[in-house]
Write a structure and sequence with these properties.
The chain has about 375 residues and is of the alpha+beta class. A hairpin with a 2-residue loop joins strand 9 and strand 10. The N and C termini lie far apart (about 50 Å).
Length: about 375
């Protein structure tokens, strides 16, 4: 055997980084600046003869099968590596369901027999890419918008905010506006609505949005869009107003700017000003032109109104630009963390085989120190 071949066998191989999103999955290697592939979170289901989404499941068995097929697609078609030879860094949301996490662990450890898995929450991974001690991460996902404050490497759990204001909310409003402009229900699929959003839509400023709502301003120029069977005209109003559900307020103060301010208000008082000056907006919808500028305008306006006027004394809101595309900032953080850690904090396969469960922050057993007088009772209850 040649010398360089022996060295290659001894050295630890690069771990893979998995960011399994609702609509898109990012997959690649640690230490790299971008994922090797960004593909839809779906696979071809031979039994149903259709593309099936990973998150379309009714029970744990169906989810297990979905994850097996999805990971097979990633490992053996897109990156062409043996899963047994490499550890995995899983980038996930702090609000990921326990059943999904444990089912994914079973697929990785038992089906693909990976040597170790490190679980990394997306908020801390996004903050890691900036190198700042205090960061407010606003993640616009497919279904939900999550706001998490990361203070010195620790997410402030009691301040987490989540609202159903992701890409689906924009797609629903865009579909409604297109149906209204065309005088009929078009029933456009999700991928067409997403393509229209990316190609034609933008976010208007706060003053212009108010004028458009009152009918006192001319709309932007309409844009043509070609479908397979006919052409479609996207009106200027649809282009400008598609993202308005993110900023619409109701009696429950459930808009995206309200979620940001509520998260800041629930954080320690000495970190609030620094959080407001270190905001990072990530996710696919964060790339909409004008969204960050509109969010800054709404924050500056709402902070002068109750109930924030009495609780927050903040005058400036500043935004960071991540050193990656907006939709892959969390993946880049996972790649950096995995490369720096070297797999030391990864959960080994034999350790998972003994316990068959993962440490989870909502569980009292995993957040209570063993020295606590009731720890034995919690262990028996679990």
């Amino acid at each position: 055997m040649a010398l360089y071949e022996g060295i290659a066998l001894i050295q630890e191989k690069q771990a893979v980084v998995l960011d399994l999103g609702t609509d898109y999955t990012k997959f690649g290697f640690t230490g790299e600046a971008a994922p090797r592939c960004i593909i839809p979170s779906e696979y071809w289901c031979t039994s149903e003869r259709r593309f099936k989404r990973v998150y379309d499941y009714n029970n744990e068995e169906e989810l297990y099968d979905n994850l097996v097929h999805m990971l097979h697609l990633l490992y053996f078609r897109h990156v062409l590596v043996n899963p047994k030879e490499r550890k995995v860094v899983v980038v996930e949301s702090l609000l990921s369901p326990t059943m999904f996490r444990e089912t994914l662990a079973k697929v990785l450890f038992l089906h693909y027999e990976v040597s170790g898995v490190m679980w990394a929450d997306s908020a801390r991974m996004c903050a890691l890419t900036l190198g700042a001690p205090v960061v407010l991460v606003v993640s616009l996902g497919a279904r939900d918008a999550e706001v998490v404050a990361v203070v010195h490497g620790c997410p402030v759990l009691q301040a987490i905010q989540s609202q159903p204001l992701g890409a689906r909310a924009i797609h629903d409003e865009l579909a409604r506006l297109l149906d209204r402009d065309n005088g009929a229900e078009l029933h456009l699929p999700e991928h067409v609505l997403e393509d229209i959003k990316v190609r034609a839509c933008f976010v208007a400023g706060r003053a212009r949005a108010l004028q458009l709502a009152e009918g006192g301003a001319p709309a932007a120029r309409a844009a043509p869009y070609a479908l397979a069977e006919r052409s479609l005209t996207v009106s200027g109003a649809a282009r400008e107003l598609a993202a308005e559900p993110l900023f619409a307020r109701d009696n429950e103060l459930a808009s995206l700017p309200d979620a940001v301010l509520q998260c800041i208000a629930l954080c320690p008082i000495d970190a609030r000003r620094e959080l407001a000056e270190n905001i990072l907006v990530t996710g696919g919808s964060a790339a909409l032109p004008g969204l960050k500028a509109r969010l800054a305008q709404e924050l500056r306006h709402l902070v002068t109104l109750p109930p924030y006027r009495e609780r927050l004394r903040i005058a400036k809101f500043k935004f960071h630009t991540a050193p990656a595309h907006d939709n892959s900032a969390a993946w880049l953080g996972g790649a950096l963390c995995g490369a720096a850690d070297g797999g030391a904090r990864a959960l080994a396969r034999d350790a998972f085989a003994r316990a068959r469960r993962l440490a989870d922050w909502p569980s009292l057993l995993h957040t209570t120190p063993p020295s606590h007088p009731h720890w034995d009772e919690l262990a028996d209850a679990e």
